[in-house]
Amino acid sequence: MSFADAFQTYINNPEICKKITLYNDDTVIIIKDMFPKSLRHYLVIPKSPAVTHAHPLKVFNDNVKLYDILEDYVQLTKQYITDDLVKFGLLEDDPETIKQFKQTFIQCGVHSIPSLNNLHIHVMTRDFNSPRLKHKKHFNSFNTRFFVDFEDLNPIGENNNTEYSDSNSENLPDTEYSSGSDDSRTEISNYKFEMNPKKLHDLVKSTPLKCCYCGQSFGNSFSQLKKHLTVEFAKKFDTSKDITCNGMT
What we know:
Number of strands: 10
Radius of gyration: 18 Å
Protein name: HIT-like protein
Shape: globular
CATH topology: HIT family, subunit A
Distance between the termini: 26 Å
Number of domains: 1
Structural class: alpha+beta
GO cellular component, one term: nucleus
Strand order of the largest sheet: 1-2-3-5-4-6
Helix content: 25-40%
Largest sheet: 6 strands, antiparallel
CATH architecture: 2-Layer Sandwich
Pfam families: DcpS_C, zf-C2HE
GO molecular function: DNA 5'-adenosine monophosphate hydrolase activity; double-stranded RNA binding; mismatched DNA binding; single-strand break-containing DNA binding; single-stranded DNA binding
CATH class: Alpha Beta
């Protein structure tokens, strides 16, 4: 089985990933990302054969029940993150502080072109202070419209117009996939979700690097961005504590 099918192995036999498993039931398995790009980076992996190979941008179309079910697990995963940060002294054990942290410093969503074949939802802190974050593509894959927020996938949410674009034409094709990305993160088309692989890869490659804390631009200088993120991280967290990503060495 190829690396792209690694999560299928976890679905079939959760015992083999017990060390990184946070939660497991008949519906999902929630694990620590083995290559975390932030202080805490977890994955919600649905088990159902009916959805596991569905495209993440289409799987919730007209399926409110599925979205609602997985939203509960996403919220649970957020709680795992804040509980762990409180445990390690990295987050104040205060209800309002925790609520604000969840709302402003945890992002949840999917990649428009997933690197692994099984459906998975990223739930992660927005610091990107990780030795596993090694190049521009890593950063931009989570900080451009290549990354689609989970709430934007809600089939009845105000942000979801269920339109797509996988055409190279500037005209909207009369097909099932007839929209692209809006410009809330980057301007690649006039439509909501972009699905054209070339446009998406170009987006990750060409979008200037921008700090996720303050918005400062670093152009193509990943090394300068990394240094800046380290400074911003130290303002946000007590670096005298254990800041190992996912608590993994």
